[in-house]
Inverse folding.
């Protein structure tokens, strides 16, 4: 375990905006009297190993990385906080209006575009829930968009690939996260006559700050105190919160990861 | 809360509109009318909305309360407005139109929302009276205190300025410019050169401050914009007069150049208003009056008369600005006097009025070069200097200075007039 007083936080560089986000958060923590630095990784797999090895104090993890940390520490890892936007994610199965798909059974024999295989919202959970609903995935022609592997779907590019495949008719149906779906609609980039939602999954939770149980109490206390003090109506904070896609940091909860744990268990069997 | 318990909510009829098909154009403005926690009912015939509205609420941090089918194929969705949106504030009523001429004056429109004593750097370019979403970036508007920026009558002066704009081509009887004896025509050319050079400085100096004025005091920036347009027109008309008569441009002297540089280097808005408008343009009123009195043709008389009317508006604004500032900050007396002393120190040793200008004004008043007439011209010039001094004293006392301060400041004023 690291011995110096600086909290070392790991994050994955899935986009160039990641640098200003963590530079800003580092400067904010330092201004609050809490030394914090960050290390950027190119993929979540390495970040998970680095946290487990004690090279970093805290990891900003996707749900997939979070569940892996939980499993590797036998549930003893510390969950420190999440974004308000990380709660109650849903995934959607969107279909082309002319594809003749009225219910989940109709998906069989059709082409289903899916996001990256490490994207919780665009692939792992929507396929898991479809199976739970009794859909036989082996009878569906899966069209995968495995872009940005290692980034766990953070870039959202595979979800946009899915929407493109639906718009241009390459796919009859597709799986994406609900945030991409509503923001693309609200921005007017979806033709409402062409696409419609067939199915919405149950809710699940998204990213989490993870630490090992050996994290010193002072670091844990300082980190959560300063993190939760960020406010949307403070201009310097708001700039960072907007970039990171939240309005406020909220306390952790574990129930929202049960479905992902089950999906991974089922997948490894 | 269950859907049925919110029967008194604000409701919108959304028909078959979807999130991606225009529904938000109804939902967002209606939510905007509610306080945080206020409930909106969306009556919808779209089944897609059943899936998407909860997701949209999550993305926008509104609370989706639930749905019930109120009729065959008709859902009622209930949404509670979230806390992360633009504060409600006060919505504006309509502007009352002036009963006299049936027109909404700019002054009535602008003063409908009072200026704040101190403007927030975070409201940026938001028009005063708009509802500003919190959390915006800070803007570098250094002039953000009303009492140092915005005298109360500035909006009225802006109205006057807009109504008084004229056309340097159409509104001057250029055909009255005739053939003058060369010395007189050259004198006109020299005077016009001097006027244009000084008006250029009056164009540049205020423009340095416009970008620093907080938009909460937009009427000040708007008035100054009208002042810049005035100066541009004056430069145009003075250069035209120099060239239309055939005299051409004369000399730009170092005295003028030094004087205008010391003016341009003023960094404080109130000091600039004082040096440029109260002292400089104030003194120019008498100069323009002198030229109009001795003008050899109607065009010269008309253009100086019109320029003088504009300048007197600038002087009025400068006086208002300085008076208002002095009323709220007595330390300003010392600051303004110090700025005049500092400027006088940079001009030490330059002598009197620039010689080419002095000679030209003398010849203008003489109407030519006949010696007895020149003697009268010289006397008129001497009287002009005294008139300028006396009127500066009046303006300084009107601004709020006592007689002794006014004497000191007027005596230290630049021999270049501006």
């Amino acid at each position: 375990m690291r011995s110096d007083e600086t909290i070392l936080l790991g994050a994955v560089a899935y986009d160039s905006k990641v640098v200003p986000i963590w530079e800003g958060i580092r400067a904010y923590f330092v201004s609050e009297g809490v030394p914090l630095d960050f290390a950027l990784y190119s993929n979540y797999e390495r970040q998970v190993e680095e946290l487990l090895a004690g090279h970093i104090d805290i990891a900003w993890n996707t749900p997939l990385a979070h569940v892996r940390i939980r499993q590797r520490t036998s549930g003893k890892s510390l969950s420190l906080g999440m974004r308000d936007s990380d709660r109650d994610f849903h995934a959607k199965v969107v279909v082309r209006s002319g594809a003749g798909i009225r219910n989940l059974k109709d998906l069989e024999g059709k082409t289903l575009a899916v996001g990256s295989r490490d994207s919780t919202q665009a692939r792992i959970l929507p396929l898991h829930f479809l199976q739970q609903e009794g859909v036989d995935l082996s009878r569906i022609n899966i069209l995968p968009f495995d872009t940005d592997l290692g980034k766990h779907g953070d870039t959202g590019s595979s979800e946009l690939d899915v929407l493109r495949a639906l718009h241009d008719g390459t796919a009859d149906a597709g799986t994406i996260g609900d945030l991409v779906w509503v923001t693309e609609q609200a921005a007017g980039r979806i033709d409402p006559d062409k696409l419609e939602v067939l199915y919405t999954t149950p809710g699940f939770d998204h990213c989490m700050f993870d630490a090992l149980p050996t994290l010193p109490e002072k670091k844990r206390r300082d980190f959560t105190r300063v993190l939760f003090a960020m406010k949307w109506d403070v201009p310097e904070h708001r700039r960072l919160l907007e970039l990171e896609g939240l309005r406020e940091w909220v306390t952790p909860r574990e129930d929202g990861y049960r479905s992902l744990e089950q999906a991974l268990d089922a997948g490894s069997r | 809360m269950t859907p049925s318990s919110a029967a008194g909510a604000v409701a919108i009829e959304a028909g078959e509109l979807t999130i991606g098909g225009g529904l938000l154009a109804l939902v967002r403005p209606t939510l905007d009318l509610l306080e945080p926690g206020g409930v909106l009912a969306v009556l919808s015939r779209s089944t897609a909305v059943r899936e998407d509205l909860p997701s949209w609420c999550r993305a926008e941090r509104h609370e989706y309360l639930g749905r019930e089918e109120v009729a065959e194929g008709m859902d009622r969705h209930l949404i509670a407005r979230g806390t992360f949106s633009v504060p409600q504030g006060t919505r504006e009523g309509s502007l009352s139109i002036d009963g006299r001429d049936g027109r909404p004056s700019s002054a009535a429109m602008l003063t409908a929302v009072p200026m704040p004593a101190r403007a927030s750097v975070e409201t940026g370019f938001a028009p005063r009276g708009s509802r500003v979403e919190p959390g915006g970036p800070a803007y570098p508007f250094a002039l953000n205190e009303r009492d140092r920026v915005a005298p109360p009558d500035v909006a009225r002066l802006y109205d006057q300025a807009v109504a008084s704009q004229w056309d340097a081509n159409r509104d001057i009887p250029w055909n009255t410019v005739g053939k003058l004896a060369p010395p007189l025509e050259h004198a006109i050319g020299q005077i016009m050169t001097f006027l244009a050079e000084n008006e250029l400085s009056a164009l540049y100096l205020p423009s340095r401050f416009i970008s620093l004025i907080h938009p909460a005091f937009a009427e000040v920036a708007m008035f100054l914009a009208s002042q810049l347009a005035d100066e541009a027109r004056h430069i145009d008309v003075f250069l035209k007069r120099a060239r239309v008569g055939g005299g051409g441009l004369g000399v730009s002297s170092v005295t003028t150049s030094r004087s205008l540089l010391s003016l341009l280097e003023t960094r404080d808005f109130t000091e600039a208003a004082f040096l440029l408008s109260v002292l400089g343009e104030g003194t120019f009123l008498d100069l323009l009056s002198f030229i109009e009195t001795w003008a050899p043709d109607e065009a010269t008389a008309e253009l100086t008369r019109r320029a003088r009317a504009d300048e007197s508006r600038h002087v009025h604004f400068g006086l208002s600005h300085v008076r208002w500032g002095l009323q709220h900050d007595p330390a300003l007396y010392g600051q303004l006097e110090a700025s005049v002393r500092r400027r006088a120190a940079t001009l030490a040793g330059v002598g009197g009025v620039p010689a080419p200008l002095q000679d030209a004004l003398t010849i203008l008043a003489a109407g030519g070069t006949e010696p007895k007439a020149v003697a009268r011209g010289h006397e008129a010039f001497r009287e002009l200097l005294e008139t300028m001094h006396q009127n500066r004293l009046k303006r300084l006392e009107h601004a709020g200075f006592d007689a002794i301060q006014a004497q000191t400041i007027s005596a230290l004023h630049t021999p270049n007039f501006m």
About this structure: Residues 79 and 236 of chain B are 62 Å apart (CA to CA). Residues 298-328 of chain B form the longest helix (31 residues). Chain B touches chain A through 20 residues (CB under 8 Å).
